[in-house]
From TrEMBL:
This is Nucleoside diphosphate kinase. The keyword Metal-binding applies. It comes from Papaver somniferum. Residues 20-157 form the Nucleoside diphosphate kinase-like domain. Major role in the synthesis of nucleoside triphosphates other than ATP. The ATP gamma phosphate is transferred to the NDP beta phosphate via a ping-pong mechanism, using a phosphorylated active-site intermediate. Shows the highest specificity towards GDP. It comes from the Eukaryota. It is an enzyme of class 2 (transferase). GO terms for cellular component: chloroplast thylakoid lumen. It is found in: Plastid, Chloroplast thylakoid lumen. GO terms for molecular function: ATP binding; metal ion binding; nucleoside diphosphate kinase activity. Its EC number is 2.7.4.6. Gene3D superfamilies: Nucleoside diphosphate kinase-like domain.
Amino acid sequence: MFLDLPAYMLQEQDAHAAEMERTFIAIKPDGVQRGLISEIVARFERKGFKLVAIKLVVPSKDFAQKHYHDLKERPFFNGLCDFLSSGPVLAMVWEGEGVIKYGRKLIGATDPQKSEPGTIRGDLAVVVGRNIIHGSDGPETAKDEIKLWFKPEELNTYTINSEKWVYG
Ligand code: ADP
């Protein structure tokens, strides 16, 4: 793809490739039911991140418990898992430089009341129990969550033309 670029630009491409990371993002049943899929996908897309996997699934309660296993001691765990398995969830993997941390910034604080305007939860949600979206909170979690939700062959590796305009 970039074979016709001068050497210094090829080095820049290599440097960016080394920084690339992937994160797991899910629009929870409330976000799907409220018709917010396109709004949320657009925010990640417009930022310059790349969608590498996407599917609509209804997770079983057992699967929801696996996804939220870190929270099993919390009083809201059972209700949270019931809720996650109550309808279709849009599961996605997004790729880009800094996408794990910046994805969390796009999403906003866990409690929408504490999320800044301009963030997904700040703009589109009101209460913590219906905060419409999930995003991995670190590199290890991202790896585990991607593995839990997707088979390796569902993760697409491809180049989009605009990448050279996003990364230089
Ligand atoms: P985040 O989703 O921002 O990573 P957590 O991992 O702490 O936040 O919690 C996972 C999910 O559990 C939250 O997104 C929210 O849906 C739910 N949750 C968190 N705290 C509460 C709470 N106090 N009451 C009800 N649900 C909660």
